Amino acid sequence: MNLELSEEQQLLKQAMREFAEGEIAPGAAERDEHARFPSELIPKLAEQGLLGIMVPEEYGGSGYDALSSVIIVEEIARVDAAVALLVGSHNSLCSGHILLAGSDAQKRTFLPPLARGEKLGAWALTEPGSGSDAGAMRTRATLDGDHWVIRGDKQFITQGSTAGTYVIMASTDPSQGTRGISAFVVDRDTPGLSVGKLEKKLGVRASDTAALHFDDMRVPKDRLLGKLNEGCKDVLSVLASARIGMAALAVGLAQGALDEALNYAKRRRQFGKPILEYEAIQWMLADMATESEAARLMAWHAATLRDEGAPYLRIASQAKLYSSEVAVRSTSKAIQIHGGYGYLKDSAVERFYRDAKLCEIGEGTSEVQRMVIARELFR
Amino acid sequence: MDFALSEHQQDVQRRARAFAASEVAPVASALDRKGSIPADIIAGAAEVGLLGCERDFVAYVAGLIEISREWASLGAVIAVHNSLVCHPIARYGDATQKNRFLTRLTDKRELGCYAFAEPSAGSDAGAIRTTATADGDHFVLNGHKRFVTGGRQARIAIVYALTDSTKGRDGLSAFIVETGTPGYIVGETNEMLGLRASEAVDVRLNDCRVPKANLLGGLNQGFAIARDIVEGGRIDIAAQAVGIGEACLAQSLAKAKDRKQFGRPIAEFEAIQWMVADMSTEIDAARLLAFRAAAMRAAHPDDTGLTKASAMAKLFASEAANRAAYNALQIFGGHGYLTEYPVERYFRDARAMTLYEETSEIERLVIERELAK
């Protein structure tokens, strides 16, 4: 039993903190205000190896483990959750699915450009009428000679308009529900693939969220990712690991909120003393710190189980559920501590508060997490 | 990063679990109503290695969780014995004191207790009124102590008293006192909501003469000792709370599968699923915080991060145990309100966790002070 970061992990954390504060934080508020995608950061993220975090070196990646990935995502989210979401979804959803289910040839073709940042990755599961209920998926893929012909619509796709590589889920046997789902890896310039509406959002506004339309999109047979009709199993596995990433993102937001609030409470004076000296403020800070520490340990635990090859479905859902609710509570308290100043767009905590809400919704809502957890408990 | 227990730690956990399941669980509710812990149960805990001789703090915490899962009163008495009595003697005692007292506390299975709180003093150590006045080879102790857990059965007490009443808490000293010493008077057992078999008593010190050789850790060192041992004490209570939380979850899962309403097990209702999902999530978080602090203490007892880590574990776990106990009663419905089922006891015992040793409010103060450093 040793729940401390190793020296190497501490160095990684320190390096990521410096990178995030030096390169990501300065433009975060401006990107958020204008809902502007952080294109200028892509080469820098790639240079740091953050676009191929868990991709093995033989495929051009950094070869980090899941725990390191949690450390990286937390430090980015501490200053900018939109960039953390980009890094998280690119890595754990798109590259993660290819790593999990791809053939060696597919890995060699698709992973190096993703890891080098030449192409961004997107992962398309959600549709206008279905999210976690994958069995209700309407997008169809039908075989025509040596091509799959895909028709349908996807929604809420992160990097939907900026990706170069898409992993797309479609029903290959509609009569079988979730047992008739397959995954495909598709290039941006495939005829029939068009990007729809760019969504305007409450938070993570600099993140690119778009709808996709597939109009008789023809995809070569060798782009089937994983086994025919067995895509759902891989989707659940990819989602479980992505939940660890979302937990890390939420922990970063909670930590960012705590750091901002603590600094402010030391500086701000009312009735002749710093507000930090009032118990009402002390209580909020103590709870924020305790809960974010608990959330961090849960994310580390889930990541460590994953690295060890142990089952982690329930633990990842618990980490995601808990840390996302902590992020929402902590960012709300951070605004409360800032008072009126926290309500202004000039404050970082205003952005954190809006961003945190994503965590309770993305990669399965809190309600879906509780469903997953209860199902595992009652097994 | 290593979340797994070592082989030895797993072994202690397994033995504690087996003992708790076979010897404690069947009798805990009935004995709790009687309000005391029989000697054979104490002896059983000693057999498992939980009475002062476990050197591996993580193993001890793993064992304490298992015991508290079945009977929190027993967990509380074991915790006081280990962290508030054996540990300070082992750490601050001189060779003679260790020889004289530690053997009795471990091999001879004599229980220890901790006399710190008073009618007007708890976490505010500066308000302690009990005095110790030097008289020849002895100190003469006078005062009134409260909430002395395990005080009915204990043979050895550590009593905190002022040796310099001009210095407030920095004038406190710790004394090892044989409870049979004339003038050490065990009063009434405090009637309590929960932890009913932990036998918290009042102790009156009435010209109680304690040999100078029994001064622990030097004159006026009492507060430093108390502040050090409170870190282990907080982790102990976090462990007890995790045990209670685990018990609440286990009982709830079994009940929800078994209990049918409207033609199906209540486990199939989302309201119940939500509650068990939250219980499991929070108890797992509490366990991680407790083991994190325990592992930190085992590796570096003087780690400055331990103050915050132990306070967070105690605060979070104790409050999570209360929420778990609340939900367990909801899941049991009216049955949970009956003393026939153990969740009623868990609910009462959980309440002590946010109060004793230090309240949640004190933990928050401690955490905030560390944050602001």
Short description:
The complex is a heterodimer of chains A (379) and B (373). Chain A is 51% helix and 16% strand.
List descriptors:
heterodimer; A: 379 residues; alpha+beta; four-stranded mixed sheet; four-stranded antiparallel sheet; 10 helices; 10 strands; 51% helix; globular; B: 373 residues
Describe the 3D structure.
The complex is a heterodimer of chains A (379) and B (373). In chain A, helix 3 (66-77) packs antiparallel against helix 7, helix 4 (81-101) packs antiparallel against helix 5 and helix 6 runs antiparallel to helix 7. In chain A, 51% of the residues lie in helices and 16% in strands. Chain A has helices at 7-33, 42-47, 66-77, 81-101, 104-115, 231-267, 279-308, 313-338, 348-359, 366-377; strands at 121-124, 140-144, 147-158, 165-171, 181-187, 193-198, 209-220, 224-225, 269-270, 273-274. In chain A, strand 9 (269-270) and strand 10 form a beta hairpin. Chain A is an alpha+beta fold. In chain B, helix 1 packs antiparallel against helix 2 (39-48), helix 6 runs parallel beside helix 8 (306-332) and helix 6 (222-258) runs antiparallel to helix 9. The relative contact order of chain B is 0.12. The mean pLDDT of chain B is 96. The interface between A and B is large, with 42 and 47 residues.
What order do the helices and strands come in, and which of them pair?
The complex is a heterodimer of chains A (379) and B (373).
Chain A: H1 7-33, H2 42-47, H3 66-77, H4 81-101, H5 104-115, E1 121-124, E2 140-144, E3 147-158, E4 165-171, E5 181-187, E6 193-198, E7 209-220, E8 224-225, H6 231-267, E9 269-270, E10 273-274, H7 279-308, H8 313-338, H9 348-359, H10 366-377
Parallel strand pairs in A: 1-4
Antiparallel strand pairs in A: 2-3, 3-7, 4-5, 5-8, 6-7, 9-10
Helix pairs in contact in A: 1-3, 3-4, 3-6, 3-7, 4-5, 4-6, 6-7, 6-8, 6-9, 7-8, 8-9, 8-10
Chain B: H1 7-34, H2 39-48, H3 57-70, H4 72-92, H5 95-106, E1 112-115, E2 131-135, E3 138-148, E4 156-162, E5 172-178, E6 184-189, E7 201-211, E8 215-216, H6 222-258, E9 260-261, E10 264-265, H7 270-299, H8 306-332, H9 343-353, H10 360-372
Parallel strand pairs in B: 1-4
Antiparallel strand pairs in B: 2-3, 3-7, 4-5, 5-8, 6-7, 9-10
